[in-house]
């Protein structure tokens, strides 16, 4: 495994010897700093957790009783020999890049991130550093996201078409982050917005924190679809086509993910529509983010690691692949959106 | 391109055939006649001649996107479609183009007459002017191969809806050699007296697999059985003193099988035969393996030596036209009777032979016959109802293929690679090994046979159990055993294991089976001895 002093890469996760803590570890450790609440980053069983104030409520909701402490964005904390601070990653509400400084040498572990402002999550802020740990979920030049407003138009047009045909519009998206971002993009004039329990549970937590979301109706087991004509139902992908979904009669289903940029993947999902929207950086986003850090040393984790690393090395960075157990935006499992 | 792009979007966005057919039928009612004609041509596999090589397209796309060529190639290997990769990699462009499909096709064909520098200017301008689906479709026209989720069957159904003509008649009209330059919409689709080209084949009738054996069928007396040969399905047409050979994929292969020309000497004009093309020398007891035939298919012109080593004959099993009359609506037994008469007087060295029928009284008899199929170098049996007409396309009920169970071996997965296209973010391409003492010897790759859920499960496992990476290939911890099914086995000095399998695929994921109980190289060699 790579040994680099301030942060090292171990089989439990990213480790800081000076502060004796791990970042997003995948095995139980005494002290964990967590970038965000997705299941592949925030796991149970850690002795102590540290995350942003904004990320903690969802983590508590998901992990149950945990010994956790909050930190504000930008607040610097001394842990052992390391100065640690959290900075917005723009991925989901509360998500952070973690900056670690030891004796003037600065690492940033960015977790998952998105560089464009979605108007909902705290917007990504570039952080100057010497060493930058980046994801590469969409680290190929075929991934270029459209402006959010255009995708919002596409989704609302589709919803309105469904409503006009007397069909329920099912939109599949992950329960934490993507679902709420979509909510903020929907036009409530078209019809009522119904939510699957998994989505609504997260909504409740985020609303309590002060995140602004449009009114939603919980589509629980007793829901009477007839009472909600022209509805759009927001649900986790796994619930599309389930018995619960079939209760709604004639419907169309769509799936919102960066992977929908690829026609083959879109067709494999076999839904009616695919909307290209991701909470990860696209190709240009990744490169801009890396450039803005000013870092010379880049550690590439989950995604198209080999290709992206080769590209970075050719372009003059000192880049290497670092194996992790993060999943990025996985179409078929988990909830990291 | 707007109208065509809208049609494409409607087809591509839906998985429901009713929606696709309705969108196509709408288009066939409304679009300009020449666009309609080209759409039928494109969706039935006809395309403008390729004006630019794909090598140039890759280079130009990488240049415009300001990316190194290797990165373009890596992206292509993930996306799995050149036209799509180019469309995605170029800077986004939201504009809409109002020029017609035919305009673009003609413009592309005009490129044949200009030098490469001008071709490049044209293509680069088009990329700049077109965005989204239009750019993708333009690239599809450039690269050929218009497979966009519309089968010919589906298109024919839409045409029937739009024109009110019967589907079977339209299917026949669309067969064979025609080109939008030489026909009009009227002459191709509508005209009462379709003055057909002499080479025009009939749509093939295709059988479904009989999964559970014949016991679900009615009285065996109503059925006829033949070997299911392991060759390629072909239609031999003798008309106007010429001969034509069509593959099931509707490819004209006349030039590849010059030996079939002698059929003209033995059979009268106005004869159309359906049968299997096999490499089967006159004195051989059985046909050669598919490998021998593959050597022939690969060559557009056949050297004398190969012609002597691997002579092809048509094993005829159906007679579709006799004395210029279309027999397809007659019962199979009657067609077969005529076929037997027609072929009765053929000399031994004729390039056409009658494919024998197999006598049986009970389904048990037939099962016994089937178990001898591998011995006869056949893949299994064909079952045809004696009273069945010759239908168009794949239809259930009258014809069935009852293939042999495949050969199987339990093997260990040792390498994994991500797929492309539909499977872009899943590990789907695996290399398998068998034991040789304490070593694992790779012997085959396999890509298919697992469910999407299983591919997801194995993908997650591969991510966590990668030992080493070789570019896109991951060496994984030997742990999982899979049952590999295959159709045949051949000695192959090119492979480390010394064998090559035909059509290997994953039959089952043996999660119940410990690693040590996978098969051995000795087992594989024993199979080679018996079946090779």
TrEMBL record, chain A:
Q: Which GO terms describe its molecular function?
A: RNA endonuclease activity
SUPFAM superfamilies referenced in this protein's UniProt entry, alphabetically: Metallo-hydrolase/oxidoreductase
The highest taxon in the source lineage is Bacteria
Entry's InterPro entries? MBL, RibonucZ/Hydroxyglut_hydro, Xnuc_lig_assoc
Record NCBIfam families: Xnuc_lig_assoc (TIGR04122)
Task: Indicate what this protein is called per its UniProt record.
Answer: Putative mRNA 3-end processing factor
What organism is this sequence from? Sulfitobacter mediterraneus
Traced from the root, the source organism's taxonomic lineage reads: Bacteria, Pseudomonadati, Pseudomonadota, Alphaproteobacteria, Rhodobacterales
UniProtKB/TrEMBL annotation, chain B:
Which reaction is catalysed here? ATP + (deoxyribonucleotide)n-3'-hydroxyl + 5'-phospho-(deoxyribonucleotide)m = (deoxyribonucleotide)n+m + AMP + diphosphate
Tell me its EC number(s), please. 6.5.1.1
- Coiled coil stretches, renumbered: none
Question: What keywords appear on the UniProt entry?
Answer: ATP-binding, Cell cycle, Cell division, DNA damage, DNA recombination, DNA repair, DNA replication, Ligase, Magnesium, Metal-binding, Nucleotide-binding
Identify the Pfam families for this entry.
DNA_ligase_A_C, DNA_ligase_A_M, DNA_ligase_A_N
UniProt-listed InterPro entries: ATP-dep_DNA_ligase, ATP_dep_DNA_lig_pp_1105_fam, DNA_ligase_ATP-dep_C, DNA_ligase_ATP-dep_cent, DNA_ligase_ATP-dep_CS, DNA_ligase_ATP-dep_N, DNA_ligase_N_sf, NA-bd_OB-fold
The main enzyme category here is ligase
Q: Where is the ATP-dependent DNA ligase family profile domain?
A: 305-436
From which domain of life does this come?
Bacteria
Molecular-function GO term, any one: ATP binding
Q: Tell me which Gene Ontology terms the entry assigns under biological process.
A: cell division; DNA recombination; DNA repair; DNA replication
Q: Under which name does UniProt file this protein?
A: DNA ligase (ATP)
Organism field: Sulfitobacter mediterraneus
